[in-house]
Design brief:
single chain, alpha+beta, Pseudouridine synthase, nine-stranded mixed β-sheet, two-stranded antiparallel sheet, 11 strands
Length: 238
């Protein structure tokens, strides 16, 4: 598996994850995962840590959905893993995503703060819930609009201040602006139409900002919009 490395030192590795690649090892995962790739690359000589959380997770600190591309950070040592994990848990990291959503999103900037929990009717899905202990916060900023009304589209920058599973996808659907080509949270009819011009979920992890646990320097990592998503965006320009 060819993975583009954005940054690497003795403590951590930052990659631009391709769409279609699963991050964590799982029985249902087909093909090599990021965890397996990184474990083979880095952790094979660290057998003494294999029974720790760091070893069992293969240095994977956070995750991206299979169909989401973009910036992903991996830890090479247990102290770095714990330091990065703390930053994600305490929400001191900065994350930005690029998404293309259905309809013209108004206003141009805003924030949605609604809890997200397991979908009561489908354990594989998530939904806005009344469980306040599962609060999720997403900030948005409109970048570009195509067409008008519900038939149009909006290119948007999404900044999650929490890290709930499927958070951005659920929040956008709740706002009646599902992400283009979303097989789980898109509307069935429009999803099938989406796939004709955008072959996968239009969601990309553009930016991640952290404090390096060893050097204490603030680092910002970015990954450009992949060619397939850029081509899908350009197809909307008439």
């Amino acid at each position: 598996m060819e993975i583009k490395i954005i940054f690497e030192d003795d403590y951590l590795c930052v990659v631009d994850k391709p769409a279609g690649v699963v991050v964590n090892d799982a029985d249902t995962a087909k093909g090599e995962t990021i965890q397996e790739w990184f474990g083979n690359k880095i952790l094979s000589s660290k057998s003494e840590t294999l029974n720790s959380e760091f070893g069992k997770k293969g240095g994977v600190v956070h995750r991206l959905d299979k169909d989401t591309s973009g910036v992903l950070i991996l830890a090479k040592t247990e102290p770095i893993y714990e330091g990065l994990k703390k930053q994600f848990m305490e929400r001191t990291t900065k994350k930005q995503y690029i998404a293309l959503v259905h309809g013209n999103l108004h206003p141009d900037t805003g924030e949605i703060s609604l809890p997200i929990d397991r979908h009561p009717g489908n354990p594989k899905k998530f939904a806005v819930s009344e469980n306040l202990s599962r609060m999720a916060i997403t900030e948005w900023k409109v970048l570009e609009k195509f067409g008008s009304g519900s038939a149009g589209y909006t290119l948007v920058e999404l900044s999650p201040h929490t890290g709930r599973t499927h958070q951005l996808r659920v929040h956008m659907q709740h706002l009646h602006h599902p992400i283009v080509s979303d097989p789980i949270y898109g509307y069935l009819k429009t999803w099938k139409q989406d796939l004709k011009w955008c072959k996968r979920l239009f969601l990309h992890a553009k930016l991640l900002e952290i404090i390096h646990p060893e050097t204490q320097l603030k680092l910002k990592f970015e990954a450009e919009l992949p060619i397939d998503l850029e081509q899908a965006r350009k197809s909307l320009i008439h």
